[in-house]
Amino acid sequence: MIARLQAWGRSYTNRGRYTPVGIVFHWVMAGLILFQIGWGFWTDWMMPGGDKVHAYQIHSAAGLPILLLAMGRIVWRMLIDDPYNDADTQGLQTKIAHGTAFLFYVTFFTLPLSGWIMWSSIAAPGPLYLGGIIPWPQIPLGEMPLERQFVILDLAEDVHIGSIVLLLLLIPAHAGAALKHHFWDRHDVLRGMLPEIPDWEDDRATRRHKRQAPDLPKESEAG
Ligand code: HEM
Ligand code: HEM
């Protein structure tokens, strides 16, 4: 089973492409994280009250799936190697790209975990739900002495904000580098992270997509 999965993965990575699973992980998590950053700052800016609590409930519901997705993504990466493409031949740039990916993975854990800890310490604003539906437990911090809970809350808040600052530095650099590789260097790396669009000139695509004859006027109509 695993060997077949890996062979399927290689049918993409050998062509310098991420697998459809890798692509879905990347773009779903990127979308969720961008949403969380925007929504988090918007919520922080709101006046205290019921709406703000509700907004934080949405923030936690959308943020907790990132923890599970990150675990799934790590397992996937352990099973299926990344593709080797043009951008992997760039020496220091390649090392920086790998370092950036590693730091992204760190934030995929530090953000939801620190959020979960903040939510669980001192007067939690309400129950937690994964994706707004599945009940999610609180971390049992309530039994600790109050001073220790404050220390943990402070620390979790620092980790949350620190991770956000890190993301705000990494995301523009990462997206900028991807666009530079695509438009400036004409490398294949961004194409490998986008869904595959069947190409008429590509033999493999024509096997799946029947070529349509153009609608030419009949001889009698052509005059
Ligand atoms: C990748 C996931 C997440 C991202 C990108 C994110 C981002 C943010 C942002 C931008 C803020 C506003 C920071 C500020 O202006 O001070 C914030 C605050 C907050 N987030 Fe998250 N968050 C994530 C996950 C979570 C989760 C899963 C929870 C709860 C279970 C959570 C709970 C909170 C809380 C309680 C605050 C308020 C912190 C404070 O006022 O100091 N976050 N988050
Ligand atoms: C919140 C936003 C984003 C996050 C957290 C993120 C995260 C990541 C991570 C962790 C990887 C490593 C591959 C993997 O483990 O699957 C990666 C690869 C990649 N990302 Fe992003 N990404 C984001 C946004 C973007 C955007 C906006 C673009 C395009 C403009 C982009 C283009 C790419 C490309 C082309 C790769 C492949 C790089 C390579 O193989 O060396 N990403 N991204």
Automatic annotation (TrEMBL):
Residues 212-223 have a biased composition (Basic and acidic residues). Its cofactor is heme b. The keyword DNA-binding does not apply. It is a multi-pass membrane protein. Residues 201-223 are annotated as: Disordered. The chain crosses the membrane at residues 21-42, 54-76, 96-119, 159-179. It is found in: Cell membrane. Its main location: membrane. InterPro entries: Cyt_b561_bac/Ni-Hgenase, Cytochrome_b561_oxidase, Di-haem_cyt_TM. Residues 17-195 form the Cytochrome b561 bacterial/Ni-hydrogenase domain. Keywords: Cell membrane, Electron transport, Heme, Iron, Membrane, Metal-binding, Transmembrane, Transmembrane helix, Transport. Coiled coil: none annotated. Belongs to the cytochrome b561 family. This is Cytochrome b.
